[in-house]
């Protein structure tokens, strides 16, 4: 059974190449490019780590050129004397190494899931590492607006969240938008495969006269809290805190402050729109408007079909996934649910260790909440204007099912100010795509289709006129 969240991720043998800004202690000079190869099952996987000095420590990113994965943020760079640890957060993984006496090598092991593989990274001379793929939409200085690093509190959770606020030039106050990321630990830019969609989106909207707040998920980058027990309920509380902070800014029009969510972020946005102090408008990008169970079954089916699996295998996988998800929903006790799921997976040939790992993944509080998610009662409660966009090549959240569900659900509650639209040729990240598979995310130079940006910007302009 594929383990795929709403926003698909890239897997690298031991390393799962996600998140975030880094922490570090004062240490030897490590800034620069480090290169090595991980041997995995007879396959050579070249890796490049880019470290840079930041606030008395280091931040960093990881490239895996063979898998077209670039600019993947490292969660933490921790240095003690000659000991160096690079930590990732999803899942728990790290590169633990020692710096050689001459300062030219990091010798250690990549560790994840109870396994380890030797890895040596060698420092490269400046300018000798090949540049990553082109990202022509990446904002470049000088920028015609002001960017400010900010923190705000979620008093309910007792944590502080960190983000970036971009403010248009000129005299405000301005309408404003909070950006809420998709599933998994995400930084404020929603960085994936060397793309930074939220940075591109914030740049575009700020140039069009909107204040934009984007923030690191709790437990990611510079935000406090933890991802260990995170659920969408926590995401809603964080989004509410972001809205409250944005409304407190003198540069912002309080009555024209709304929320834009991508994928799971749209689910969070929908729930936020039914709570006290809702956003003034709601924008859903690739957000589900049908039950979570239905989303996941369809997602796995679409991905399998697009990957070229035979029709009979697609059908068999669908039946297995449906049985597993229903087992989880109908069995509240995790131990019992995992026992049942392991049995189902072993019947189709999965070994015991892998089956247990999959069973544990689908019985987390987050996954249970996703499967049980029912947006229909919520849609009818939304009173603010709504824009719902889905790409026709989105294999995570099918447009053909969710676009009409958004419109029907919102209108059912008497709210006629809803625009639900399928954008042709766009994938889950709103890139102009060939297949829609996550394999091509990093291969595409486009970060966010200009046509999609224009739809968002034009809709916002119409709904926030002074």
TrEMBL record:
Residues 1-24 form the signal peptide. Keywords: Hydrolase, Signal. Coiled coil: none annotated. The keyword Lyase does not apply. GO terms for molecular function: carboxylic ester hydrolase activity. InterPro entries: AB_hydrolase_Est10, AB_hydrolase_fold, Hydrolase_4. Residues 201-429 form the Serine aminopeptidase S33 domain. The keyword Lipoprotein does not apply. Pfam families: Hydrolase_4. This is Alpha/beta hydrolase. It comes from Hymenobacter gummosus.
């Amino acid at each position: 059974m594929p383990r795929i969240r709403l926003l698909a991720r890239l897997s690298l043998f031991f390393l799962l190449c996600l998140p975030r800004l880094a922490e570090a202690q004062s240490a030897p000079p490590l800034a620069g490019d480090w290169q090595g190869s991980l041997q995995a099952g007879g396959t050579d996987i070249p890796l490049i780590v880019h470290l840079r000095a930041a606030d008395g420590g280091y931040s960093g990113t990881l490239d895996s050129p063979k898998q077209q994965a670039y600019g993947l943020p490292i969660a933490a760079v921790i240095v003690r004397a000659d000991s160096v640890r690079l930590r990732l957060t999803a899942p728990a993984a790290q590169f633990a190494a020692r710096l050689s006496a001459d300062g030219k090598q990091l010798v250690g092991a990549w560790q994840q899931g109870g396994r380890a593989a030797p890895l040596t990274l060698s420092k490269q001379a400046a300018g000798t590492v090949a540049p990553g793929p082109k990202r022509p939409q990446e904002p470049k200085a000088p920028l015609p607006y002001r960017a400010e690093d900010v923190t705000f509190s979620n008093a309910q959770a007792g944590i502080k969240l960190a983000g970036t606020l971009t403010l248009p030039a000129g005299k405000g106050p301005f309408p404003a938008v909070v950006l809420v990321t998709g599933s998994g630990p995400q930084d404020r830019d929603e960085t994936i495969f060397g793309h930074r969609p939220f940075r591109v989106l914030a740049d575009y909207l700020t140039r069009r006269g909107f204040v934009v707040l984007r923030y690191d998920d709790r437990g990611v980058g510079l935000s406090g809290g933890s991802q260990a027990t995170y659920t969408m309920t926590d995401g809603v509380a964080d989004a509410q805190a972001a809205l409250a902070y944005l409304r407190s800014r003198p540069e912002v029009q309080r009555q024209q402050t709304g929320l834009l969510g991508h994928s799971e972020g749209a689910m969070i946005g929908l729930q936020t729109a039914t709570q006290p102090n809702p956003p003034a408008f709601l924008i859903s990008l690739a957000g589900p408007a049908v039950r979570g169970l239905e989303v996941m079954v369809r997602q796995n089916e679409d991905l399998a079909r697009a990957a070229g699996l035979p029709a009979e295998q697609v059908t068999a996988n669908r039946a297995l996934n449906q049985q597993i998800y229903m087992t989880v929903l109908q069995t509240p006790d995790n131990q019992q649910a995992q026992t049942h799921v392991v049995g189902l997976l072993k019947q189709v040939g999965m070994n015991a260790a892998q089956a247990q790992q999959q069973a544990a993944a689908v019985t987390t509080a987050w996954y249970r909440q996703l499967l049980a998610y029912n947006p229909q009662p919520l849609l009818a409660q939304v009173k603010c204007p709504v824009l719902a966009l889905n790409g026709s090549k989105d294999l995570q959240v099918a447009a053909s099912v969710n676009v009409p569900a958004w419109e029907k659900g919102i209108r059912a509650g008497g709210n006629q100010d809803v625009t639900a639209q399928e954008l042709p040729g766009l994938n889950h990240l709103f890139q102009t795509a060939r297949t829609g598979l996550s394999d091509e995310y990093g291969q595409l130079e486009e970060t966010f289709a200009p046509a999609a940006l224009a739809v968002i910007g034009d809709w916002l302009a119409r709904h926030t006129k002074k």
